[in-house]
Write a structure and sequence with these properties.
It contains 5 helices and 10 strands. It is an alpha+beta fold. Strands 1, 7, 8, 9 and 10 form a 5-stranded antiparallel sheet that branches. A 5-stranded antiparallel sheet has the order 2-3-6-4-5, sandwiched between helices. Helix 4 packs antiparallel against helix 5. The longest helix is centred in the middle third of the chain and has 20 residues.
Length: 208
C-alpha cells in the first residue's frame, strides 16, 4: 500500500485583513458525507458571516470546492490547492469571512483564503499513513542519541522510551527502511545491540 498524508488533528485559526476576519477550520474526514456534515456545522455556527467558503478531498473519492459568493476562483480553488500541494487527503476545510467593509480585490482575496487554509492546516498538523514496522532496541545510554538519530534519518519515529540499567526503545520505521535500520544498529554498536522487529501496523504518525 502506498503511503498518503492526512491532517493530524483539527485546526482552527483566525487573522484579520483590512478589517475582514478570516476563520480557518480544518478537519480529518473519511467520507464525502462527513465532509458535508462539517461544512454545514460551520455554516450553522457562523450563520451571520458573509461567506463560508470550503473545499474537501476524500481519498479515492470526491474533490469539491465552493467560493460561496466570493468572485469565482478567489476562495475555494486556492484553498484546495493548499492541500494538493501538501499532498494531504481525507481533509475538509472551511474558511469563514466576516466582511469588514473594505474590498480586498481578486489578488487580496486569493492570498487571504490561501493563507487561512494553510494556517489552519499548520495548526492541525500533517500525519503520514503508512505501514510501519515496530522495532525494539536496548542500548547503553552512550548510544541513545546516536540510535535515535539513525531512526529519524530513516524516516522513523520514537514511540516509547524506558529508562533502566539500559535504555529500552520502541521505534516505528517505514517498512522499506526497517532492515537497514537494524543493520545500522548492529554496526554502530559493534554488535553489542540488536534491533528486534516485533510486528507491523498500518497507522498515521504525525510528521509536523
Amino acid at each position: 500500500m502506498s503511503e498518503y498524508f492526512i491532517p493530524a488533528g483539527s485546526g482552527e485559526t483566525e487573522f484579520v485583513e483590512k478589517r475582514s476576519s478570516f476563520l480557518g477550520h480544518v478537519r480529518f474526514v473519511e467520507t464525502e458525507d462527513a465532509a458535508r456534515e462539517f461544512i454545514n456545522e460551520i455554516k450553522k455556527k457562523h450563520y451571520d458571516a458573509r461567506h463560508n467558503c470550503w473545499c474537501y478531498i476524500v481519498r479515492g473519492g470526491a474533490v469539491r470546492y465552493s467560493d460561496d459568493g466570493e468572485p469565482q476562483g478567489t476562495a475555494g480553488l486556492p484553498m484546495l490547492e493548499v492541500f494538493k500541494r501538501e499532498g494531504v487527503e481525507n481533509v475538509v476545510c472551511v474558511v469563514t469571512r466576516y466582511f469588514g467593509g473594505v474590498l480586498l480585490g481578486t489578488g487580496g482575496l486569493l492570498r487571504a483564503y490561501t493563507k487561512s487554509a494553510k494556517d489552519a492546516l499548520n495548526a492541525a498538523g500533517i500525519a503520514v499513513v503508512r505501514r510501519w514496522v515496530r522495532v525494539s532496541v536496548e542500548c547503553p545510554y552512550s548510544l541513545l542519541e546516536r540510535i535515535k538519530l539513525e531512526c529519524t534519518a530513516l524516516d522513523g519515529t520514537v514511540r516509547d522510551t524506558q529508562y533502566g540499567a539500559q535504555v529500552a526503545l520502541e521505534l516505528l520505521l517505514p517498512e522499506k527502511n526497517a532492515e537497514t535500520f537494524a543493520a545500522r544498529v548492529t554496526e554502530i554498536s559493534a554488535g553489542a545491540c540488536t534491533a528486534e522487529l516485533t510486528g507491523e501496523e498500518l497507522m498515521p504518525v504525525k510528521l509536523r
